[in-house]
Each structure stands twice: as C-alpha cells, then as structure tokens.
Amino acid sequence: MPDALLDKLRAAVGAPNVLTGVELSPYVVEGRTPEAAVFPGSVDEVAAVIGLAAEAARPVTPWGGGTAVSVGMPAAPGGLVLGLRRLSRLLEHEPGDLTASAEAGMTVEAFQTALRGRGQWVSLDPADARLATLGGVLAANASGPRRHLYGTARDLLIGVTVVTADGAIVRGGGKVVKNVAGYDLPKLFVGSYGTLGVIVEATVKLRPLPEHERLVCVPFDRLKDAGAAVKTLLAGDLIPNAIDLLDAAAAAALEAEGPALVVGFDGLREQVDWQCAELSRLVAACGGREGRPLPDDTWPRLGTAARAAFPATAAVMAFSVLPGQVADLMEQGAGVARARGLASAWAAHAGVGVVRAALASDDRAKQPAPIAALLQEWRNLARAGGGHGTLEWAPLAVKSQVPVWDDPGAAGRIMERIKAQLDPRNILNPGRFVAGI
Question: At what angle do helices 223-235 and 269-284 cross, to 10 degrees?
C-alpha cells in the first residue's frame, strides 16, 4: 500500500488505529492478508476511510466480530479491513417505545446486557453473541433457535445508518415502530454481507423479558420419528419459541441422547409448565421418550451443534427447505455421506426449515474433489424439494470447485443491478456474495 494512503488513513482515524504488517494476522482469511486494518471511531471517520479507499480503488472488507468471515468467498487480495470495534456505544433506549439504537460495533452480548437492566431484550440470538456485533448480525441476517417465534433481523430492524461506497452517510427508517413512509431502505442492507454499504448504526424493536424460559430435550430411537413429532408440534396449539431437530452426532455434542427434538418455551412460569407437560403428551404418541430440561448455556450452542460434533470439519453447509422436509433431508444427506465412507452430523431449526450439516475431517476427507462432489449432491437433495444450500465453511480449495452460493435465478440479475447502482467501483466486499457481487 502506498505510504501516502497510509498517511491519510492515519490522519483520518489516528495512527494507533491503523494496523499493518504482523498486526494483521487476526484478519487473514484463507491465506489472504489485507494491506491494512483500519478502525474508525465515528461515523464520519468511517465515511472518510471509505472515501479514501474509493479514491485509491482499494477493496474494503467490513469487519464486526469476525464470526461470519468464513461465509462466501474470501476478500480480494490486498485492500483494507474496516473494523467497527470502536463504534460500540448504546446510543438510545426508549423502554416505553420498546426501541433502542446502537452503534454497529456493539456486541450482541453487550447490547442485551444493557437492555436487560430495563427488563427488555432484542430477540436476536446468534451463535456467538460475545463476539458477534449488531452490525454484523444485520449484515449476515444471522439468527438462532428463537427465530422460530421471533423472526430474523429483518423483522426487528426499523432504522439504519449506512456509509455507502462513495463515502456518503445515508439514513433510512426511523426510531419508532410505526414507520411507513417511503421505501423500506433498511431491509435492503440486511443480509447483504457488506456488499452494498457499511452499517454503522441501527435501531431495532425490543420485547419485554419473559418471566421464565425452558429448553426441553426429547430423545427418540429414530430420526424419522422425531421428524414426525415436529409436524405434530407445528400442527398443534403450543407456542414454542424454538423447535430444533438433532441427529445422534449433533445431540452428543450437546451432551444429550439422540436423535433428539429440542423445544423451547417462554412466558409466565405456569404457561411454560403447562406447555412442557403438553409437549410430553404429544411427542409420546410419536415415540418420544421422557424429556429433560437442558441448561441455559445450551441455547447458543444449538446453531453450532453439527459442527461441534467433530474435532475437525471438512465443510459445513446450510440449507433452507420446507419444515416438513427437514427430517428427510437429514436422513438422505447422512446416507449419501455414509455411502462415500464419510461421517456427517446434522442439526436443524426445524420449525423454519433451516438445516446445517457438518462433514468430519479425516484421511478420506483430505482431497477437495470428493468433498465438493458430496456437497453438490447434498445441494441437489435440497433443490429437489424446492430448497437451496449455502456453503458456510470450507477450505478455499473446496470453494473453488463447488459454488458457495446456490443459483439465485432471476433474483441474481436484480441484485447485480442494485450492486452496480450502489457500488459502481465494486470496492465493498467484491466477489463475496451471491452472483459474484
């Protein structure tokens, strides 16, 4: 990187907040090292950094807590990491309106801790709330098991401040829930993986903290029976906040018997007690054995149970299918892996049709070609039911043989046009997202 550009970056954010050389080791992704990592301390400094990068035609990789850096293709060689860790303040909390605003670099854990002091929470539960930042969760549209009842980041966001690829500061939405004027600009940036703009502030809807919450694990002898129990539960009158389905390997990672159905409830204690009793009655008819409560620290581990099943993984793939197809996909996918002599683990937020599969890394999983072939076969199984698959983690050698993102179809052309309008120089996370944008 030219010394002149480094000098300008240091002048913009302060010399201690520009890292180079060996200090960049935490920001190396799949062997690709940025030229510098820059940590602005205000929205104006973010705009200044992006403006300088645009002038110098340097790609920019927004970086929150780094929990989703393995998703998508790695950053282009060179360029800047734009870290948001210094933008970590709670800006405003209006308990009466059930809304709060925070800077994008605030971790979800810190955000929740601040809100709990006033008896509220934001219903986002990514896997690693200690590291995951509010901006990163929005950019990745990350969610956890409670998505079943409370939805995703798209459902909670009501206002956002974004710095665009030319350094402009754009605000969309508002600070109240009843905000209906104009286009819903904030949702354009949710799930865009930093390719359209850098989220620097956000306003979200909150909920009162429930009086009581419980997570119950019901073991089954067969995954097929657990899948039938999911359908029974979805057709019933219970109101769970989570319905997860685990095969034996994923359940073992949670110190539970498997296959297993894991169901969460919250609300008044009496309501939770009644729903847990009714759950036992419903699942018994499907072959479920006696359930047991799981500790509170199980919640954030549900989303990573498949990957945690093995000491090392060769790949992790996420699928979106109809809830009624979850158990079939898990059984068929595991069968395909076994036929190739490979071990896999499967876990799903079954009520919303989100499934994750991890492939164990062993001597048979060293070559990228067989792994890529298996992943493509898994993706084809999801497609057969109208779903799709995304490669969440794999070595670059595997990513080069099987597309990270599924074919977006006609939507891909629309996304390309939006990218061309908002980032004509293609400097924000170039090539990382769907359709190579």
Answer: 130
Has residue 76 got a pLDDT over 80?
A: no
Query: What ranges do the domains of the chain cover?
Result: 3-83, 90-208, 212-303, 306-399
The model's pLDDT over 328-358, given as tens digits with 9 standing for 90+, comes to 999 999 999 999 999 999 999 999 999 999 9
- Is residue 178 pLDDT above 70, yes or no? no
Q: What is the CA radius of gyration of the chain?
A: 22
DSSP secondary structure of 304-352 = GTTGGGSSSEEEEEEEE--GGGHHHHHHHHHHHHHHTT--EEEEEEGGG
Q: Which CATH class is domain 306-399?
A: alpha beta
CATH of domain 3-83: 3.30.43.10
End-to-end CA distance of the chain: 24
- Is residue 165 scored above 80 in pLDDT? yes
Long-range contacts of 416-422 (CB under 8 A, 24+ apart): 418/188, 418/196, 419/195, 419/196, 422/164, 422/165, 422/196, 422/197
Determine the average pLDDT of the residues in 366-393. 93
Q: Which of 267, 217, 280 is nearest to 241 (CA)?
A: 267
Residue with tokens 């002898």: 221
In CATH, what class is 212-303? alpha beta
What is 90-208's CATH number?
3.30.465.10
- The residues, any chain, with a CB within 8 Å of residue 66's CB and separated by 6 or more, are 26, 27, 131
Structure tokens at 8: 């300008």
> Residue 67: CB partners within 8 Å, gap ≥ 6?
126, 127, 128, 131, 132, 136, 142
Closest CA to 397 of 429, 379, 371: 371
Amino acid identity at 96: G
User: Which amino acid would we find at residue 195?
Assistant: T
- For 206-247, the pLDDT digits (tens) are 999 999 999 999 999 999 999 999 999 999 999 999 999 999
User: Shortest CA distance to 242 belongs to which of 146, 176, 329, 371?
Assistant: 146
Given this model, what pLDDT does residue 365 score? 60
Q: What is the DSSP string of 364-432?
A: GG-SHHHHHHHHHHHHHHHHHTT-EEEEEE--HHHHTTS-SSPP-THHHHHHHHHHHHH-TT--BSTT-
Domains 90-208 and 212-303 alike in fold = no
Q: What is the pTM of this model?
A: 0.92
